[in-house]
């Protein structure tokens, strides 16, 4: 069953020079109950803006955000408060996100307090349960966030996000600030929690090697648009979009030859002045004349038995 459905969601910011930047352009995608969708792209591609917009931390410019059948783009602040029970978020920087003056027990219980749920005693029991669930020591609730390492602090942030037993969590670069060995511990925790709790997760990261470990499906963003989306294995093993191919070839691999890497030419274009047509054409090793014309539509390629979708003129879309 579809839990979240974005329908041509767009977010435009005004610039200081009086222009505008399309940070997110007409993104349509679905996330099923219990599904992990990995959203990947270089810094500045709009993936965090997309996450924040669907959470209504940023106001959408246009489009719909259907969550459990309700359009969040049109929800009042009061309705959004109710939605928060089912839709939570974990950010990159657990230290910045946790109030240093509050005990860990208070930090984790905060969503329950805000929603007016339970008594002091029942909240304390729930906090103990959550600490066990995310692998925090029993003594954690009476201690303070600064007493914990980065990985442990991210467990605290996850415990807090789970306090209301949500249906979905948006995780924005949730492991990016951590050392690689700690990263894999937290990724294992996330996979374990999703299996046990049937959680849906939008897992946002610039790092495809992280995304591939947790995602059922992967969506690739470039300059505000989704350019490829499909089952994780299909996208990783048989990517169609030249940008996806470049991202994958950039993942360091044991024994891989440097010569096999696809080098991306040039910088990411200024989002305030995106190239016409396929926005990737200024860096694409396979760009053709047609690529400078109109934006290639995202759709299922006509000539393959694929489940996913791609937006590239090399792969005409089934009409
Ligand atoms: Fe490259 Fe053209 Fe495909 Fe864009 S549409 S990715 S420029 S081949
Ligand atoms: Mg970001």
Automatic annotation (TrEMBL):
Coiled coil: none annotated. The keyword Hydrolase does not apply. It is a peripheral membrane protein. The keyword Transferase does not apply. InterPro entries: AAA+_ATPase, ABC_transp_ATP-bind, ABC_transporter-like_ATP-bd, ABC_transporter-like_CS, Oligopep_ABC_C, P-loop_NTPase. CDD domains: ABC_NikE_OppD_transporters (cd03257). Gene3D superfamilies: P-loop containing nucleotide triphosphate hydrolases (3.40.50.300). NCBIfam families: oligo_HPY. Transmembrane segments: none annotated. One of its GO terms (biological process) is peptide transport. It comes from Wenxinia saemankumensis. It is found in: Cell inner membrane. Keywords: ATP-binding, Nucleotide-binding, Transport. SMART domains: AAA. PANTHER family: D,D-DIPEPTIDE TRANSPORT ATP-BINDING PROTEIN DDPF-RELATED (PTHR43776:SF7), TRANSPORT ATP-BINDING PROTEIN (PTHR43776). Residues 4-248 form the ABC transporter domain. It comes from the Bacteria. GO terms for molecular function: ATP binding; ATP hydrolysis activity. The lineage of its organism: Bacteria, Pseudomonadati, Pseudomonadota, Alphaproteobacteria, Rhodobacterales. Its main location: membrane. This is Peptide/nickel transport system ATP-binding protein/oligopeptide transport system ATP-binding protein. One of its GO terms (cellular component) is plasma membrane. It holds the Pfam family ABC_tran. Belongs to the ABC transporter superfamily.
